[in-house]
Amino acid sequence: LxxxxxxEHSQIQMNKEFYLVGVEKIQILIGENxxxxxxxxxxxNKDIGYSFRAVRHPSNVPWPDGNxxxxxxxxxxxxxxxxxxxxxxNFPLSVYCGASGKGVILWTYYVGVAPEENLEECMEGRPxxxxxxxxxxxxxxxxxxxxxxxxxxxTAMGVNWEGIxxxxxxxxxxxxxxxxxxDGSPGHMFTTPIHVDAAIGYAKAVSPxxxxxxxxxxxxxxxxxxxxxxxTDFNSTSIxxxxxxxxxxxxxxxxxxxxxxxxxxxxxxxxxxxKEGESSLLGDSTTLKLECEDGEDRNHHDTKTVFVDGIYxxxxxxxxxxxxxxxxxxxxxxxxxxxxxxxxxICPPTPNPNFPAVYVGNKTGMLQAKFAxxxxxxxxxxxVYANGNGEGALGGKGPLGDLNETLVDNDDYKTxxxxxxxxxxxxxxxxxxxxxFKSSTHADVETLQPKEINETGNHQIYIxxxxxxxxxxGSGSGDGVWTILLDVLCDDDWCEGMSIILNSDIVSKxxxxxxxxxxxxDTVHGAPSFVPGWYYFELTGCLSDWGSTTVNCSxxxxxxxxxxxxxxxxxxxxxxxxxxxxxxxxxxxxIGCAWTNNPFNSNPRTGFSFHHVSTxxxxxxxYDACLDLDGDTSPTTQPNTVLKVLGLSYSSIxxxxxxxPEDISDIYEDNFPVLSLVNIY
Length: 681
Known about the structure:
The chain is mainly beta.
């Protein structure tokens, strides 16, 4: 280098050194150390101050004045630039010294995390994939600038744990399995916080924390050991995450006798009802089970122990319960000594009297029954009915048949009516009731399988024509019709099968059977065996000595009238008397004896001082078991033709056939004694 002087002839020799200074590299301060930047991209944390330094070359020469010059993310001069970036994106940073310079791209970014399907809750044990994404979208993650994603989780017990994955893109994911919900967790769930760190170079972005609720499948209602009534809706609810599906409620215990459920069995909640199952399982504990699948089609289930309740026993049956009614069982007793006290049937092992019952024919029958529930009695409501089964050769449904449904909502006696009218014939038959119950409220009650309760019987049922008449409505041994008498009257050889409307035929049958019983007339004294006084009738002796002793007309008339009154038919006593103290007879055949017109074989000939027969108050027909009349045209002479006194007209036939013509004007009649005043024993 030279310098021109003031004389072309003079020269001055000068020596000076000049240095070319340039920017060799850029460094970043990490901790207390300056680190070379050897990549085009530098990743920084937003809102954090960073120091960058320009390194000169040669290093032993100072920077020229006013150099180096920074531009971009920092504008100024000096060796060190302090940079704070307060937004996300890319920001160039360059430094120059003259024509020499270096530059980098500064990047700030953020990261977000989301679970698959953006779910906010899931079931325990479900694998869930969490996805992390770096923003902005142009952040240049690459193989040279890989991102380390660290996913942070917390267990149900509060223990933190993490999972790490590496990526050469803006995306990372990690699959974690949800922990089991600890027993007793409030709400049967726990909440786990989840966040992710995304580290690239010198930067680390932390995502916002998200929360995922983890559930177990839990039957919330009914609670354990709850009692549910057969065929009656009960509410079911459950706890689970909202990704569940494929619900199924069942009661799987006791296969093949498992209970079958109806109602909302494919919903997570709703009304359920037990619609089928063995009656033997009533009152026992069983398992209520709910199954479902989560969002990954993994199976879950929960169970509760419940009791299926209903009516397990008919505890008592009353036949005679309404003294004013002719539809229920009529007042009855066994004999003079043994009364019948309702309930007539009591469920074993309680001593079971199993008393018989007396019903009026051609009526809608009624009875009462009492029930026991498998659990409690409050709030119960069932429909109960019974099917009748007749015993023996008669079979069928028995005298009372099937019983209509009745609402049973407590353990009081409930009244049941017969579906069919009682038979219209005199009858005696044993029968059983098979009892069933079903729901009283369910919409599908008609399709529900009824549950068998238990069988009651053998019930001995007597069918009579009408409510038994006096003297069976008195006191003592006359308080109630005697069933040992009905055993006779309802026999095949007596009135069994006879129409209840044919009163005359029934009385005729009783009259004829008495007349042909084997009794014989007392031809010595004409004394009674079973009528010790006008107002007494020894029914016990009559039944025990049937056909084996002597009798008189009072015995026979009392037997005919009182036996008929046991069937509800009401013949009275008619006494035929003499004004003069006695009247002669035509030819008669006294019971068990030969034809005679002088029954006491007296000399001179005598007849009756009075004579008892049976008759209806509504007509003058006579029924006389004590004798046969001569049915030919000349009753005053022999030979004789038997004429049974089975409903003969008193005025036009009976009187003329019985009384000798010369004494016909000597007789009169009265209804003595009044049978309602007679005591039987």
